Amino acid sequence: MPYTPASPTQSQPPVRINLLSDTQTRPTPAMRAAIASAEVGDEQIGDDPSVNALCARVADLLGKEAAVFMPSGTMCNVAALLVHCRPGDEIIAHKTAHILSREGGTHAALGGFQITGLDGADGQFTPDALRAALHPHTRYEMPQTVVSVEQTANIGGGTIWTKQHLDEVADIAHARGMATHMDGARLLNACVATGISAQDMAAGWDSVWIDFTKGLGAPLGAALAGPRAFIDKVWHWKQRLGGAMRQAGMSAAGCLYSLDHHVDRLADDHAHARALASGLAQINGVVVQQPETNLVFFDPAGAGISGADMVKALRAKGVLLATMDGRIRACTHLDVTAEMIEQTLELIRDVVRRA
Q: What is the pLDDT along the chain (355 residues), one digit of tens a residue?
């Protein structure tokens, strides 16, 4: 089922509580000031000091040799896999992975790759499921080239791949001569929640990226890291895809600010998600998945109202949510306060009473 927020109409009130996604954050006044004062140059020829500083920072953060600044996380996934694979290759991921279900078929359209989706609870496949998916190297089978994971697992409920789990999956892949790729859109959420550093979490993964436009609250950008020779090849695809930029330091400055000021505060988002889930669990008939990070998935059907109708009713009250794969997803972020969580719970209780 597609990602479906309530359709806007002229009769709907302004959004006052935005739980649609952490991509809805807006740059803070201090971040805007950092952006306005950014040192800039021509990013396309490597002459933007703010972009260069960001790439060096991300490479160090993730324990890799080099990094490249990209307009979006989707472009990070696409460019990385275009380097790792050749037409006809197979990529193994979870069946709900972003690369399989939410990137418009780009990997098939541009690369001619097949992505095989594995089953597994909470958006994660097991090491045994990976072993079972591997086939002998024969001319009758497509080459299995990459294993990809998503940290955190979005559709799985914002769940965290444990360090042990990641290491075992990477070891299996490398033993078969496969590359490993981590979609780290919310990697820093996992790091804050577990206390494990990003470098340790990404160890064993040949390519990994982080997004600045979700929990970190920057207006644009993601950065992909890996071996220097790999990043050189990614740059070629970045150019081909139209991702090379000019004075991108304006954006990079916001990303640098987010790394300095918005990482530790992700814990606040996680606390707000737990508060929301706790309140939802007390409403008779509402089934809620307990959050591990900043995503709360719940189903109100048992309370006598469908997810779509609940989203519509809340939108009429100024609360923006979405249904995703049959459940409602609420996402806490920089612009969501504890008071907003309490207001949302009261409005949901009111909708259920009326239902």
A: 445 555 554 578 999 999 999 999 999 999 999 999 999 999 999 999 999 999 999 999 999 999 999 999 999 999 999 999 999 999 999 999 999 999 999 999 999 999 999 999 999 999 999 999 999 999 999 999 999 999 999 999 999 999 999 999 999 999 999 999 999 999 999 999 999 999 999 999 999 999 999 999 999 999 999 999 999 999 999 999 999 999 999 999 999 999 999 999 999 999 999 999 999 999 999 999 999 999 999 999 999 999 999 999 999 999 999 999 899 999 999 999 999 999 999 999 999 999 8
Classified as helix, coil or strand, 163 is: helix
Say which amino acid occupies 230: F
DSSP 116: E
Question: What angle do helix axes 338-354 and 307-315 make, rounded to 10 degrees?
Answer: 120
Report the alpha-carbon distance of residue 13 to residue 1 in Å, rounded.
27
CATH 3.90.1150.10 domain position(s) in the chain: 4-26+265-354
| DSSP state letter for 107 | I
How many C-beta neighbours within 10 Å does residue 334 have?
A: 22
- Chain region(s) in the chain for CATH 3.40.640.10: 38-261
Positive/negative CA dihedral, 103, 108, 113, 114: positive
* 38-261 CATH pick, 3.40.640.10, 3.40.50.720, 3.40.50.300, 3.40.50.150: 3.40.640.10
| Torsion 54-57-61-67 (CA) sign | positive
**43: phi then psi, degrees, rounded to nearest 5:** -60, -35
Is the model's pTM score more than 0.85?
A: yes
Q: Please state which architecture CATH assigns to domain 4-26+265-354.
A: Alpha-Beta Complex (3.90)
